[in-house]
Amino acid sequence: MVDTRGYICPTPVLMVQKALKDRPAMVEVLAEAGAAVENITRFAHSQGYQVSKTADGPDWKLTLTK
Questions:
Q1: What sequence ranges are listed for the domain UPF0033 (predicted)?
Q2: What is the pLDDT of residue 33?
Q3: Which tens digits make up the pLDDT trace of 43-57?
Q4: Which end of the chain has a smaller Cβ tally under 10 Å, C or N?
C-alpha cells in the first residue's frame, strides 16, 4: 500500500514509480482527489498497468494491476 495523501505532485507519482520498480502484479495506492489521481493513473497506464479507482471519502483508492 502506497499512501500518497498529503504530498503534492510530482511526489505521489515518484512514490508509485518506486513501488513499481520490481514490476509487482498489484499495487494499491491511496491518493487525494485531483491531480495526483490523474497523474498516477497516467503513469500506471504508461507502465502497462490497469487502474481501478474507488472513492474512499474525500480520497481515492487506486488498484494498479498487470
A1: 2-66
A2: 85
A3: 999 999 999 999 988
A4: N
